[in-house]
Amino acid sequence: MSAEDLEKYETEMELKLYREYRDVVGLFTYVIETDRRFYLTNDYEMQVHSVQGEVFFEVSMADAWVWDMYRPARFVKQVRVLTFKDVNIEELNRSELDLTQDSGFGSSGESGG
């Protein structure tokens, strides 16, 4: 497989992943971003642990969707993440979830400014 073929494959996979995200995002309440993954979920629990002066985070999620183009199945029943890095948790704004409007992806129109 040439480098060009690999790049084309990855571009197609990313587009497929974005389309899947667009289809499922409305089913979820929270976005959770760690240093390695991006998750959508309706239920999570986060605990902060401190062991010998080192702080780390434990995030547990149920019935989540994970942004990872290399996973054969992106819906997962249970997820447990342990990380020493930042964890960002945001509640989704339902009015911003209409991805059918022009979001700037693939549009050739002018942007305001």
UniProtKB/TrEMBL annotation:
InterPro entries: DUF2469
Top-rank taxon: Bacteria
Pfam families: DUF2469
Protein name, UniProt field: DUF2469 domain-containing protein
Organism lineage string: Bacteria, Bacillati, Actinomycetota, Actinomycetes, Kitasatosporales
